């Protein structure tokens, strides 16, 4: 694993918080910047320029007001995509496959209907909040890690869905 970060500015702390469970490498790739650059932002050694701030907003789905000043809500909403865009079948298959792999890895059943419901929900969320294929893949990785860490609890696929 990489060195732990010691953020020296409030901006750096918020950037790490916004990255959440996503790896620094995955976020740097989605941003199109070197890993070292993102690390410098997260340590507070450098501050991103205007173009990079825009990319951070899109990739992490955060409000720039919050990221820069700490004011307001962390996450900013994006309008839902138009229904006429159609289904990205390849991406949907990636979601289904990822969910099935995680559940099998946990020794849990992956019932088709439950997996389809969860995959459709994730698909809609990712399409609505992520603006590029790289962002969607990053978002999917975070969701799959969370599912794995939660042991599949709270998902329709395990029959223990919370209300």
Largest sheet: none
User: In total, how many beta strands?
Assistant: 0
**Helix fraction bin:** 55-70%
Topology order in helix (H) and strand (E) letters: HHHHHHHH
Q: Radius of gyration from the CA trace?
A: 17 Å
Residue share in β-strands? under 5%
Task: List low-confidence stretches.
Answer: 78-84, 157-163
Mean pLDDT across the residues is: 82
User: Helical stretch count?
Assistant: 8
Distance between the termini: 37 Å
Shape: elongated
Number of domains: 2
SS-based class: mainly alpha
Describe the structure concisely.
The chain has 163 residues and is mainly α.
Please give a structural write-up.
The radius of gyration is 17 Å and the shape is elongated. Helix content is 59%, strand content 0%. The chain folds into 2 domains: 10-69, Orthogonal Bundle (434 Repressor (Amino-terminal Domain)), CATH 1.10.260; 83-158, no CATH class. It is an all-alpha fold. Residues 78-84 and 157-163 have low confidence and may be disordered.
List keywords for this structure.
59% helix, 8 helices, 434 Repressor (Amino-terminal Domain), mainly alpha, single chain, 163 residues
Helices and strands, with pairings:
Layout: H1 10-19, H2 24-31, H3 35-43, H4 50-60, H5 64-69, H6 89-105, H7 112-129, H8 133-149
